[in-house]
Design brief:
By secondary structure, the protein is mainly beta. It folds into two domains: 11-15 and 80-181, Immunoglobulins (Immunoglobulin-like, Sandwich); 185-376, Immunoglobulins (Immunoglobulin-like, Sandwich), CATH 2.60.40. 4% of the residues lie in helices and 42% in strands. The protein is built from one helix and 27 strands. It has one helix spanning 25-40; strands spanning 11-14, 43-44, 50-51, 83-86, 89-95, 101-109, 115-122, 127-129, 136-137, 142-149, 156-166, 171-181, 185-188, 191-193, 201-208, 216-219, 225-227, 238-244, 255-260, 267-273, 289-296, 301-307, 316-319, 324-333, 338-346, 352-361, 366-376. Strands 1, 5, 7, 9, 11 and 12 form a six-stranded mixed sheet that branches. A hairpin with a 4-residue loop joins strand 11 (156-166) and strand 12 (171-181). The longest helix is centred in the N-terminal third of the chain and has 16 residues, at 25-40. The two termini are 37 Å apart.
Amino acid sequence: MRTEASGAVVEARTLWFPMRNPLSTASLALCALASAALALAPQNNPNGNALTGTNMPAQTAPDATAGTPPVDATGMIDALPPIKVTPEVLDLGFMAPKAGGKGTVQLLNTGDKPLTIAAVTPSCKCTTTSQLAGTVIEPGKSVPLEAVLEGAAMPQPHRASIRVLVDGYAKVLEIQLRGETAMPLRCVPGLINAVEDKPRQGRFVVESLDKKPFTICAMAGRVPDLIGWQPGDQPRNSYLVRFDLDSYQPTFPAFLVLETDRADCPVLNIWVRSRDTMRQSVLRMKEYEVNLGRVPMGGTVDASVEMEDPGEEILAIESLSPELQAEMTGQTTDGKLRKVAFRITPKGPQQGLLYGKVKLYTREKEQPLVVFGSVRPEGATGCVGCRADKPDAPGAPAAPAQPAPATK
C-alpha cells in the first residue's frame, strides 16, 4: 500500500564553482554597447505595438541572447543541464531483508551540444552508482545510470538521491531513489509514535505483499484486537489492528511483536517509538533488534548481527532476560564489517512469544540488543503453539525494562 504520488520529484540545487571561462574586459564592454543599441532600437511585437526599453521592464525586454539560458558571474550556465531522466523517480519497490536492490535510469541529452558529466554522487553511503565521471553524452543520445541500494536487516523505508553535475552548468540534476525493505507481511505505518503527548491508543494496518490471506495469532503474547474481524471469520490479506499502550504494565515494550500462521513470516514487529525505547548506539550496529523467527520448542535458534566497527572485537554475549540463554558461536570481519554469530536457547518448556534482551561486550563497550521470536512445537501449523492471553490476564507477559536513551 503506497500513499506517495508517483510524479516527478527531480529537484535542482545551485552550486557555485570557480570561474572557468571569464569574460575579458573588452568583451564585456562590447556586450554592454550591443545591449544599449538594441534597447534604443524599436521592435514590433505580434500585435503591432512598439516595444522599447522605456515602455517595458528591463528584465523582460528581448535581447540578442533571448532563448538561451543565463550565464552567472562565474561563466557557468545558470540552469539545469538539458537532460531528461527516465524514469523520473527510481523506485526499487519492495526488497527482502538484507537483499538490497538496484535499478537503472537513462540520461538523455535533449540539447544540441555534447554534455560531459563531471560527477555523480549519492546522498548516503547506503547507495552506490555506476562511474560516469568524464562520460560525454552526444545530442539525442543517452547513457544508463545504475544505482545499488545496500540491504537492511529490518523492515524500513529508504529514501536517497543521486546528484549529477555536468560541466558548464551551475545547477545540479537531482534524481530521487526510493524503496522499502519488507517481509512478506508488513505493518503500515512502520512505527507507533508514542513520544511526549502523542496518543497512546491507535490503529495500524497489517497486510500481505502477495495479497494472500493469513491469520494474526497473537500480538505481544495477547489476543489481537482486530477491528471488523472475529474468531471464526475467514482469514484476510489485510487487518486493522487496535492497540492500547496503557494496557501494558509497568510500561509498554519497545516492539509489539505479532505472531502469524505464515510459514515465510511467522514473526513481525512494529516499533513503539518513545523517549524510553530509543535505540542505544554504543556500537555502530546495522541492526539493534533481531527477529529470530520461529524457534523450535525445546531447541535453539542461530542468529547473527553486523556492525560497522570492524576493529571492535566482541569478547562475550550475555542474556539479560530469564526467559532465554545466549552464547556466541563466532565472528568474522572483512575489514569493513564485523559479523557476530550467536545462539539463543529458550529456558523451560515455554511456547509462544519469546522476548528479551542480550548484550554484546567489547573490551570497553557494551551494546544491548532486543531479540524476539515465536516458540512453537516442531511441525506445528497454523497458530498452534502461539499463546494469546487476554490483556488483563494474570499470565500476560510483562514488558521488560527498556534501555535509557543513548548519551553523547
